[in-house]
Structure to design on (311 residues):
């Protein structure tokens, strides 16, 4: 297949999560995290920091949905990127004040992160990027680590531990991390077909992909086991995620590439400039141009040749 790379300004727009009960999910996403529901369309609630466009989190109610069993593919976590370190600190202070259980803390060198899960077990990461000029590259890969997070230092940014009433404006989906069954097949789909570059392959059992030099827009791992099965249909988890590209012509190029690779490239109702597909593990994604996303375009984090330290 002809080599292809997505435009630098490609970004993740939103994630649609399957939840078992809307009221329970909103109690967490609004009451605990501090999002606001902006609108409803049938079983789907659209959430953002201010309750208006764009809506990075979309909750799709599936009554009776059960937690995703261990050892299956699907969602590992949706990563919500706070606009700055203070926003992350205030979100963590809020969670600690409310005594919500947290699952982990990590310093990834390029970012600082906190991990938790919603009431249906959907994995979430809250993170803030470090300044791009501090990122390092080695051998053509972005250097990322999983070191202990200095939580005390982070919380010092939270204005003496004050817990705000809402999550920081500008909070968005920075990346999605998936549990997959085969890394080689996943790399062929996300890199060779869709055109995301591999930014990191040194973490055992995992790969990371991005556009424009970002550390990653999509992560994938086989930690649930190679050849892990898909979860049952009635499972909570990731219904789909959306990738935004700058121009409609990129969507049309991707449609042809997907069809050539034998992958689905289905039309989105009432939108000729959008398409829906599924990765090799059946994880759904939509690809839309900025102007069809009902949101003002935001420039994706871009790394120029001279802005990242190399070793």
């Amino acid at each position: 297949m002809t080599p292809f790379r997505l435009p630098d300004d490609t970004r993740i727009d939103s994630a649609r999560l399957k939840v078992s009960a809307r009221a329970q999910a909103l109690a967490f996403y609004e009451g605990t995290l501090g999002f606001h529901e902006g609108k409803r369309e049938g079983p789907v609630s659209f959430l953002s920091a201010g309750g208006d466009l764009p809506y990075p989190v979309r909750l799709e109610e599936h009554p009776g949905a059960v937690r995703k069993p261990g050892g299956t593919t699907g969602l590992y976590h949706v990563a919500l990127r706070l606009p700055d370190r203070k926003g992350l600190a205030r979100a963590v202070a809020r969670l600690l004040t409310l005594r919500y259980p947290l699952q982990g803390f990590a310093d990834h060198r390029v970012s600082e992160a906190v991990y938790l899960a919603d009431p249906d077990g959907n994995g979430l990461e809250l993170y803030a990027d470090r300044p791009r000029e501090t990122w390092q590259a080695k051998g053509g890969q972005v250097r990322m680590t999983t070191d202990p997070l200095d939580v005390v230092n982070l919380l010092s940014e939270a204005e003496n531990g004050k817990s705000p009433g809402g999550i920081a404006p500008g909070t968005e989906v920075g990346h999605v991390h998936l549990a997959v069954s085969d890394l080689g097949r996943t790399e062929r789909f996300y890199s060779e077909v869709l055109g995301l570059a591999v930014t990191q392959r040194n973490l055992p059992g995992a790969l990371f992909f991005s556009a424009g030099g970002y550390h990653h827009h999509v992560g994938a791992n086989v930690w649930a086991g190679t050849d892990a099965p898909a979860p049952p249909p009635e499972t909570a988890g990731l219904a789909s995620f959306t990738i935004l590209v700058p121009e409609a012509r990129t969507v049309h190029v991707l449609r042809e590439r997907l069809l050539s690779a034998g992958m689905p490239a289905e039309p989105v109702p009432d939108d000729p400039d959008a398409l829906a597909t599924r990765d090799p593990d059946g994880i759904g994604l939509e690809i839309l141009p900025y102007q069809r996303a009902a949101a003002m375009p935001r420039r994706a984090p871009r790394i120029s040749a001279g802005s990242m330290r190399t070793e």
